[in-house]
Amino acid sequence: MYFRGGMFMKLNMGSADRIIRILIAIIIAVLLYTNVLQGALAIILGIVAIVFIVTSVIGFCPLYVLFGMSTKQHKKRE
After folding, report:
1. SS3 string of the chain?
2. CA–CA separation, 74 and 36 (whole Å)
3. What is the pTM of this model?
4. I want to staple 28 with a disulfide (CB 3.0 to 4.6 A). Which of 6, 10, 49, 54 is the partner?
């Protein structure tokens, strides 16, 4: 959990989730760079790639909060 802009955000993304999102963003970037994707689809997937990168870097996905999900493994306290 960390403090961000006046509220606490609980990290809710596991490392596998973060790696998969970064890989998808890289694939989209390559497809955009090689002009395989064009037009509206390119714009939409470009935005998705940016969102994937940002959420992966900070480890927090707002949609997971809305659906009550978390892919982060929590350590057991003994």
Report:
1. CEEECCEEECCCCCHHHHHHHHHHHHHHHHHHHCCCCCHHHHHHHHHHHHHHHHHHHHCCCHHHHHHCCCCCCCCCCC
2. 40
3. 0.78
4. 49
